[in-house]
Amino acid sequence: MKVLISDPLAREGVDRLKEEDNIKVREAPGLSQEELIRTIPEYDALIVRSETKVTGEVIGAASHLKVIGRAGTGLDNIDITSATKRGIIVMNTPGGNTISAAEHTISMILALSRNIPQAHFSLRSGEWNRKKFMGTEVYGKILGMVGLGRIGSEVAKRAQGLKMRTIAYDPFISKERAEQLGVTLMDLEELLPEVDYLTVHTPLSSQTRNLIGE
């Protein structure tokens, strides 16, 4: 099997593939669409992250392609309809970045509440405006989450550790499951006016595009 990796991947993952005798791996990050279209016909598998756009044109040129692997969660950079028509399997790794995404979310909330980017820029400019960038505590604030799946539930746990109140909109999560997580479920229209901070943890699809607003 010939595998093309068109985005940077963790060395450990690439090395594990190369250990297999029946797999021939080529790493080619940064290919343009035209280069990818010219290259893809000779490969059986394609592994991408988010940078590579696997369009219908790319899939149409992939005469031997059997599987597309997405090292990550979102699949909006892959034309799944075209892949399905060609009988190409599309796979992702939904749990691979759950903790990282949750931690990043909390770090962004703290940076926002404490004006960290603005204070950093001010300090590097030779200024010291401590009062201007004091910000506010997140203690007791309300965090609203759109999506309470793997990432949303991990964000909720961390926010609760900071003594934030957690509310969420997710039509696919039961009230019982939300209660187990210590989260109050609400309709989206009910949730939005209540929140101090809003996070979104949904895959991009026709149902979720512009869910919050254009």
UniProtKB/TrEMBL annotation:
Pfam families: 2-Hacid_dh
Residue ranges occupied by any D-isomer specific 2-hydroxyacid dehydrogenase catalytic domain in the UniProt entry: 3-176
Annotated SUPFAM superfamilies: Formate/glycerate dehydrogenase catalytic domain-like, NAD(P)-binding Rossmann-fold domains
Molecular function in Gene Ontology: NAD binding; oxidoreductase activity, acting on the CH-OH group of donors, NAD or NADP as acceptor
InterPro entries per UniProt: D-isomer_2_OHA_DH_cat_dom, NAD(P)-bd_dom_sf
The protein, known as: D-isomer specific 2-hydroxyacid dehydrogenase catalytic domain-containing protein
